[in-house]
UniProtKB/TrEMBL annotation:
Protein name: peptidylprolyl isomerase
Limits of the PPIase cyclophilin-type domain: 31-203
Pfam families named in the record: Pro_isomerase (PF00160)
Record bears the keyword tRNA processing: no
Entry EC no(s): 5.2.1.8
Keyword Ligase on entry: no
Recorded superkingdom: Bacteria
Cross-referenced PANTHER family: PEPTIDYL-PROLYL CIS-TRANS ISOMERASE-RELATED, PEPTIDYLPROLYL ISOMERASE DOMAIN AND WD REPEAT-CONTAINING PROTEIN 1
Keyword annotations of the record: Isomerase, Rotamase, Signal
InterPro entries on file: Cyclophilin-like_dom_sf, Cyclophilin-type_PPIase_dom, Cyclophilin_A-like
Any one GO molecular function term: peptidyl-prolyl cis-trans isomerase activity
Endpoints of the signal sequence: 1-19
Amino acid sequence: MKRILLTLFLTVSAFWVNAQTSFVRLKTNKGNIILMLYDQTPKHRDMFLKMIAEGAYKEALFNRVIKAFVSQAGELDDTILNREKAHPESLKRFAAEIKPGLFHKKGALGAGRDDNPEKASYFSQIYLVAGKKQTDAQLDALEQKKGIHFTARQREIYKKIGGTPHLDGDYTVFGEVIDGMEVADAINQVPTQNDLPVSPVVFDAQVLSKKEASKYRNMYKTGL
């Protein structure tokens, strides 16, 4: 089963990988998670890398964990909103890069945001999708409700792997977990109180070196 799931991830994601693709390690106190950043969302990719370089994701926390939905990390909404009140002249949001082919499958990396008409993202809040397996009936209902379309491949992944398809078209997806999914799953299952982990889940985000990244590029080229 693990091999089947990995094959589904690889065949869908291989199209996006090139020699410049960036990879990031989330070094957590639960283990390591490797993220691939999509070149199809260059502004979010570059902003995430910039925030990592500036230390925004050093000793950061997964601060909102909802089982079978998402694990959110980085700055809290209240922290962001309070800063914006104190400094109203500063740039508040980051323009959305919502692409139909980049969807909320299990393991997707998304940019957090508040409720705003532009669907613009926060600068320093991310989430990893956990989600649930979907049925064709559920996906059909979402298509009708939201006026979106799921491709045959997206349907296959949502049915076999799971995700949060109701977020599609509303939040920017700019990467995905390609290694350490078991760690992401473990984080999504930690005990919580009001969605906050009872025991802190701490992580550092680190950009992989060219040598380290080559391992994952080669994995996509070979199909495993």
